[in-house]
Design goal:
This protein has 152 residues and is an alpha+beta fold. It contains 4 helices and 4 strands. Helices cover 50% and strands 21% of the residues. A 4-stranded mixed β-sheet has the order 1-2-4-3, covered by helices on one side. Helix 2 links the parallel strand 1 and strand 2.
Amino acid sequence: MARPPVAKLMDYGKFKYESAQKAREARRNQALTVIKEMRLRLKIDPHDYETKKGHVVRFLKQGDKVKITVMFRGREQSRPEMGYRLLQRLAGDVSDLGVVESNPKQDGRNMVMVIAPHKGAATAQGRRNAKSDAAAAEAEAAAQEQEQAPSA
C-alpha cells in the first residue's frame, strides 16, 4: 500500500523455473505411504497365524502401514467378538513394531483394523540398512581393487 505504488520487474522464465525446482524438491522429500493388506479367517490354524504375523512384522519393519481384514462366512458372522479378539491378539503381538491406527470395526462380512509403524522406527531401520549396504559395497570395492592391483 505504498505511495507511489512499488513494482518489481522480474524475469518470468526464471521465476517459473525456480518455482518448478522448489516443487520438485518438495516432491522428492515427500514420504510415500503404502498400505499392505493381510487377510485372515476366523478359524485360523496356529501355524498359519504365525506365518501371517511374520508378514505383518516384515511390512511394519519396511515402514508400511498394514490393513488387517478378518473375513467372516456363514455362521461366523454371528460371532464378531471372536474376530475382535483375533485382531487384538495380533495387535498385541506386533505392538513393539507398530501402533493401532484404526480400531477393529465391522464392515459387512469383514472386520478391518489398520496398524501403522512407530514414527521414526522404520526410517531409522532403513537408514541402518542403507549404512550397512554402503559399508558392504565399499568393502567389496576395496577387495576388488586389491585383486586387480599387480602383485610386486
